[in-house]
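anyone else get weird line breaks when pasting these?? whatever heres mine. first is seq + tokens for prot A
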Amino acid sequence: MRYIIVGTGNISNTYVAALQKLSGSELIGAVSRSERPLRTAPGLPIWKSLADVDQAFDAVILATPNGLHHQGALQAAALGKHVLTEKPLDISRAAMDEMIAACASAGVILAVCYQRRTSPDNQTIKKLLAQNAFGKIFAADLSAKFFRDQAYYDSGAYRGTWAVDGGGPFMQQACHNIDIYTWFFGLPAKVSSVLGRFAHEMEAEDHGAAILQHSNGMIGTIIASTAARPGFAARLEVHCEKGSFTLTDDRITFWDITGISNPADTQFSYAHDGATSAAVTDTTAHETIIRDFEMAARTGSEPLASAESARLTTELILQIYANDTAKTISTRRSD
């Protein structure tokens, strides 16, 4: 497949590197309203809009800020091009619905790069959950305590804003981890949260906690932060009828489940934890997402992170924001 990357900021470099490693996948250029070149592929052509592209291509990769994803998706769908977007799908229900409807009407694939779903250990847990192998699950506790300095938020006017980023660490840094939570357990029936801003000059929260009550009785907790110096590995601890297990940065690091041997894949090498930096140097998981995306485009199969599935992650985050009992972030825009 032949690709256009929309957006030439930092995350675009990850997709450039991933495409360069995939035989049969070709990056032909990028779209940038400022006409800024791709840093890691400076010789490729740059257009100001998708409508200006004068070469044949099959799909777009959206590497724009969160709240602009729907714009690129709608433009691509109008041209009949498949869409792979950086996470999250978008930051509002209306935008996500519009994207999904436009791509469905155009008959093109819309997928999201939630690459943590490619982890062998995460996939193993997903299969065991489908088999009800753990018995009743009564607790799932997700901790995504990361750190970003003020310079990170100062590096782009949109960072940490409601209108473009869609929020703080819940929508931005921790949404990958929250996506695994929703992929495993679905949406809760009830959400209560407390959010605050403690270490940064920004609009949105930089630390918060949520308690989630699921219809089957399971109690979940999620902590998300970019104020937890120096930054910690993400952990998901699950407690169930048959015991407990822990995933640390998508690897099984603790296992005590009656009747099931530890299924950890010790060969898994993807190592981006996101605790202290937004940079991604290991593109293995992105390559897997792109291969899966191309298979879906060729065969019509559902991609690993379909738009409908990824929509649940944004939905949960929006509920966390809407149910902030502290009401400390008074500048939050309404969805």
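and prot B, same format (seq, then tokens)
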Amino acid sequence: MTATRRTILLTGASGVVGNALLQHLGHHKVVCLVHNNAPEGATEHVRGDLTAPGLGLDPQDRHRLAAEVDTIIHCAAVTDFTAGADATRDLNVVGTERVLEFATESGAITHYVSTAFVARTDLTRSDVGEGMADPSDYLETKRAAEHVVATAGLPTTIIRPSIVIGDSTTGAITKFQGLHTLIRAVLKNTLPLVPLQPDAHIDFVPQDVLATAITSLVDSGTSFGEYWITAGQNALTTSTMIELCVEVGSRLGLEAQPPRLVNTDMVDRLIRPVFINPLPRAVRRRFDDMIAMTALFANASYFPSTLGDVPGCAPLSTDLLADAFTRGVEHLMRAQRLGQFAEEAA
């Protein structure tokens, strides 16, 4: 059955999720709301500002779009944990309010892309030390934005992906994420320890899987519900991911040594005061940033997963996740000229 062709207003088109969506929504008319330059692959775009009244659109553009748009996919968000509370709230909460104002005017269905990490309410650290990364600002604003969406009285869905990695087949991704930083550190032997248990589950979803799920919700005309696009109980463990990093690195010319896995209590009681505090400030800051990030996974329960409830989608298997992760490591090494790829570039 052919999906009804829709006119979609897409925010955040230059981000990882938005860019992946552009590759899946070709059977619809997609108008990208951009602040600066249009992303590659965008066939139509309008300039605006998510935090401004009327989305900062030229009145003529706004009137035209309100008459044409029947679907909104709202991906734009501040995801940088160092951005600060004010900038994060402006885009993540105020921007969502502005989008819903436009949805009221246009009568469009709104698909709001949130994060599965809204479920991790008790795992952010109140003390980030000398680090600059504070996940609490991001998570608080995503929870607030979800409340705005849920209470708007409009046709809306809330989509909660876990960490988004590259394409499951090629590993390619528009912009490397925090997880890639850790992978590179393992490959380069610059990460002697990771404050996680070996059996801690690191939930991620390939970008094409997420884009397929969102596209399916659009195609089916779904206008309500909450969707957890996650690996759930099949998420890979810390030890499995490190083993895969080491295996890929070795196969492609890097002899990586697996870092030691320790619990956070040991970090606070022994490792930081004895080994970290004497180091230069820049090193201490990077260490505290890592602690703030990994706290979201330490002692965490599984995310819910409702990927199988999305029309045409199925739960992610451990084998598929392991293959996708492997492709991501290979892509990272190729893009950053690590191992044998450094020799090929020389």
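btw re prot B: The first strand starts at residue 7 and ends at 11. The radius of gyration is 21 Å.
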